[in-house]
Amino acid sequence: MVTLPGEDGLSIAKRLSIRADFRIVMLTARVMTDDRISGFEAGADVYLNKPVDFRELVTVLRRLCKRLENVTSQQWQLKTNLFLLVAPNGEQIKITTNEAAFLHYLICAEKNYLTRYELEQKMWGISNAHTSRRLEVLVSRLRQKLSIVNNELIQTYRCEGYGLIMPLNKIETKLDT
Q1: Is 46 helix (H, G, I), strand (E, B) or coil?
Q2: For the segment 154-176, what is each residue's pLDDT rounded down to a tens digit?
């Protein structure tokens, strides 16, 4: 848990625990009460000690999967053709073409976020002071719309770029004719 290369398990758990679509199982040889408390404070849903009984591990994973199914059924949805963002509670938020494009690029990002430069290039074909300010305004307005449902969806990576905090399903809807 602590002796991982590059980053320790507690900091990884802290970073992932803010996401509603993650469940964290810590499997470790550290058995002291302080270690267990640190694990739970970092965001662990379950803290198991090695060696673990395989039946216990399977039971824990099944239980967490059931809890995760309940969360994923209530995810954000981006209805691109209708320019709507649907919150997990069902509330619909009208968005602009640029806001829809911004969210689309974040959904498609391979590394769960895009740099400011990448976003500006994808959206406007160039990256300069003008597009940088334009991106900031776009994110600010989108966050203002999201505040209506009291929910965070966009994470800022300071001096880097933007990513999604929670999963966002992109849905292509067919318009009735």
Answers
A1: strand
A2: 889 888 899 988 777 777 655 44
